[in-house]
């Protein structure tokens, strides 16, 4: 069973950010299921943590049990989907506050989809100029395909392309969470799940020094 954590920073009810997060989560669940694994999906609505986030940012000694539970979910996750609405051209303040409260290395090597929603497609570059640098700083293992969804694109050809991007990003996340069964493993070794996060282990047992391989050959 793989653990997939969904973090949504949507504020409204219903929330377009939560809707996109659910679409990404279900697509990822389907891709993991196709690899013969089950998926446990947990969702964190950051707006529900607003009070404790403000408390944690101003008083590090204060008790914040709901925030602590959210942080524990991250520690146990095999994959992460993080979705934020766009405010003033970037991610929301609550979204940033949540990740500011994490312990160092909390996201190290954690397979992650980044995604954002907005009213207009003019904000689409948020993925590359705001979200990707943030999660690179946190050392998450970001999948190549991020997803941006604008309200004005719904029901248009661009909206159909967004569905394709959701499928592609889900495949990439599933590939990192579960070793693909339809591909030949590379010489660097196989991808194994260790604890919560995944890591690449080199096949040292079969390593043969170059000098031994060349023994008996002339110059």
Structure explained in plain terms:
- InterPro entries: CE1759_FMN_reduct (IPR023932), Flavoprotein-like_sf (IPR029039), FMN_Rdtase-like_dom (IPR005025), NAD(P)H-dep_FMN_reductase (IPR051814).
- This is FMN reductase.
- With 219 residues, the protein is of the alpha/beta class.
- It has one domain (2-183): Rossmann fold, CATH 3.40.50.
- It has helices at 16-33, 50-58, 65-76, 93-100, 126-137, 157-177, 210-213; strands at residues 2-8, 39-45, 79-87, 90-91, 111-118, 141-142, 147-150, 191-193, 198-200.
- The strands form two sheets. Strands 1, 2, 3, 4, 5, 6 and 7 form a seven-stranded mixed sheet that branches. Strands 8-9 form a two-stranded antiparallel ribbon.
- A hairpin with a 2-residue loop joins strand 3 and strand 4.
- It is globular and about 50 Å long.
- The termini are far apart.
């Amino acid at each position: 069973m793989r653990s997939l954590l969904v973090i949504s920073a949507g504020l409204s009810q219903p929330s377009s950010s939560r809707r996109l997060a659910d679409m990404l989560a279900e697509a990822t669940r389907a891709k993991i299921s196709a690899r013969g694994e089950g998926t446990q999906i947990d969702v964190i609505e950051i707006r529900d943590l607003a009070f404790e986030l403000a408390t944690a940012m101003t008083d590090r000694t204060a008790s914040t049990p709901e925030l602590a539970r959210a942080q524990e979910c991250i520690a146990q996750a095999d994959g992460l989907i993080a979705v934020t609405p766009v405010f003033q051209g970037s991610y929301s303040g609550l979204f940033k506050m949540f990740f500011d409260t994490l312990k160092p290395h909390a996201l190290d090597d954690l397979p992650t989809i980044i995604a954002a929603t907005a009213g207009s497609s003019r904000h689409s570059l948020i993925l590359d100029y705001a979200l990707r640098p943030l999660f690179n700083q946190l050392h998450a293992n970001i999948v190549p395909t991020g997803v941006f969804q604008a309200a004005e694109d719904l029901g248009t050809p661009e909206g159909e392309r967004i569905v394709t991007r959701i499928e592609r990003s889900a495949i990439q996340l599933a590939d990192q969470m579960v070793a693909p069964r339809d591909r030949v493993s590379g010489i660097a070794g196989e991808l194994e799940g260790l604890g919560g996060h995944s890591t690449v282990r080199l096949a040292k047992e079969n390593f043969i020094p170059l000098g031994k391989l060349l023994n008996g050959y002339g110059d």
